[in-house]
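Page 37, top half.
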Amino acid sequence: MIARQLEAKIRKASKQYPVVAITGPRQSGKTTLCHAIFSDYSYVNLEKPDVRNFAIEDPNGFLAQFKKPVILDEVQRVPELLSYIMPIVDENKQMGQFILTGLQNFHLMESISQSLAGRCITYKLLSLSHREIIGAPNLDIFKLRTLESPIVDEKGWQWHVFKGGFPILYDRQLDSSEWLAQYTQTYLERDVRILTNVGNLATFELFLRLCAGRSGQLLNIASLANDAGISMMTAKRWLSLLTASYTIKLLCPHLKNFNKRLIKSPKLYFYDTGLLCYLLHIRSADELNTHSMRGAIFETYIVSELEKACCNAGMESPFYFWRDSQGHEIDLIIENGETLFPIEIKSGQTVSCDMFKTLNWWRTLTNTKEAMLIYGGSEHYTREGNQVRPWSFV
């Protein structure tokens, strides 16, 4: 088992909160991590029909059977159970009494926001980050300016992008394309129908692949709905589903007005680039060198790695992008209080002057002293106030 950087946070939280919830996409390692941390806890999988029926029909009796702390796996299958947990934790006042796991973003579930407010802390466990895979410490996104020894990874970003980060691919050395085909089918047939009523799975799969073709780009919902042959209302509902199940992330624009007309549409990214490559019919890492979406896929990878760094630190990501109607765009902005730190992301392996054009424009506009370029090469230096970092930095 590859060590997960979120483990220390979860251990600490279990001593401070009666309920700890761990969410994330299917096969991100939630159950494995829970068993490793809470090996002495009772364990129940609510995916099992008989167990689920017991929990639905007699929630009080179901919870009363546990004489010690318990892991309730796949709790999204019985969300009403959360209302019955509240009086138990209020009466017992025992920290770490319930560990909940699920594939849905609990922050979007009304039941948990109301029933367990103040009693539960939630963490997101995404697929493996690059630093987890190679055994490096988690990246502190607020200390990106700090020079550190460059991380050497001879596999190249193409290998990591194509492989993706699902733990089982590394534990069992599985063929990623074969496994992701089964994963996608399971997601469509089980998870999608659990979380919402989708009548035509073939249309939803088309919608999912169309989203893949838009990763790293501004989201035009009307165009997406038209291409999928569905209404805008349905497209919005399906995008919410993909967001809630940690398949995609919608990156919001930073809307501070610099006397320019700003773009307000979000950008769409996939959390796992292995899944993204599968949906785009990319069948080898080498194809990424010449693929028409090479730049967008590389940008998706960097954004997802920085997002994982935030999740593994137990924090919400302070990420935005910036774009105006004149075509000026900063790929990523990290907001730290009143400070904005701009990052440009380029897949090329050779640094050129053009890569700094927008960064220098932004620095002049905002009087920003520092900026960063993350690119597909291996050099690590500072150039006229712009910090140059290789992809392996993240």
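Page 37, bottom half:
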Amino acid sequence: MSKERYSQSIFEAASDGLIVHDVETGRVVAANPAAGAMHGYAREEFIGLHPTTFIHPDSQPLFNEYVQAVQSGDVFQTLIVDVRHDGSPFYVEWRGTAFIYQSRPCLLSVVRDVGERVEAERLLEQQVEARAREQSTLLEISQTLASALELQPALILDQLRVIIEYTHAGLFALQDSALVALAVRGSQQLEQSVPFHVRLNGPGTLSALFNGHRPIRIADVWGADPEARFLRSLLENSADVLLEGVQAWMWVPLAVKGRVIGGVGVAHVERDYFTVHHADLALTVANQAAITMVNADLYERAQTLAALHERQRLAQNLHDAVNQSLFSAGLIAEVLPRLWERDPDEGRQSLEDLRRLTRGALAEMRALLAELRPSILTETDLGDLLHQLGSAFTGRTNIPVAVTVVGQGSLPADVQVALYRVCQEGLSNIAKHAKADRVAIHLQYDPGAVELRLCDDGCGFDPEHTSPGRSGLSMMRERAQAVGAVLSIASQPGHGTELTIHWTEDQKQEAL
């Protein structure tokens, strides 16, 4: 076989399309059968066509660039959209080189149908984008659920719907031997049925629902499969509303450290709607929901415990301050008539003590009411609050407090509360440690600023070497820093203490 005939045989038998273009006319002067079949032409029909016939208009500029590059001697490869004889577009990879054919300058192009490859790449890219969106959505759902300290069952179902479309859904908590519907989504009749209970018949039922912490998918809830029959037997009475008008069902257990705490059930009108991927997504959301439910339970317990501690503290304050003041006042009132008859001067002093004790008890009660109703601390004038603190302190300790207020002003709520708490803590420290005979509270308003000074003539201390018993100082500093105020303490042993807290609007903005 001659070299020419051998080359022609290769040309004819090649599986890729081979096209020879005349450089001057641009038309096809030779092509193998694969090139014609690829474009939907017989080879005889294909030869003589101009590339504008079988190259998509949008790809014409790219094809012209390809021709110029090949003519310049470069080996050029590009992806072009060609058009078949029936008008359908498809992706083709072109690679060419310049050569002399029949004594004329031509281009030899190897063309390969890469439509399936491009479509596979496009689908893969779509899948990657979809997974990226899902991961981003799951992260947002996780952040949303994690930020909810109090349990919001409907929020969990709404977040689940962001990533999995459903017709009906229910969030259940395991309580005793029943699943209690905390929230449902679906028809109006379904949402009005909450709360309802799903009774569990023994540990076997719970074990089946837990399913090794794997979701359960049921293609048709009305089918004869064991899972479908089990579901229908479980959702009886008022719970059967979850199955109305649906076919597909998926149950996802809520568990923490192998302990079942509930579950999420979702349904859809289409048969066999939920996929394995749906189950994986739902389990991810369910795991976050389980943590949210546990955290909400812990938060509720913490609130209950905090409320208990607060009640105990208030009760202790009532016992330490108000009860003792009223008890002393009662004793004075009992002996006052006889004391007055015996010594009017001493009786007048006891009467003054009685007045001080009752005023102090009244101030203490007002302070306790402020603790019970925190809005009082922001709605009442700060000067009045300081007078109230001073009266309560005097009634409790018999140490006179002079309160002076210079100017007027309105403070942000958090700043006013911080100043009040600092003064309250300062008075508490004086009562515990100072052994003072007199105390002074001075409040001064200036434009855009306020200063509070608390002074006593007690034993004083070295601020650089505070004892563990003076932990209230660090608390006062933290309160001041939280609102952008500056707290300073001047004291030395034997010369009393002066506490100053200064706040300006500029400092508040810097703190923010």
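Margin note: The CA atoms of residues 101 and 475 lie 94 Å apart.
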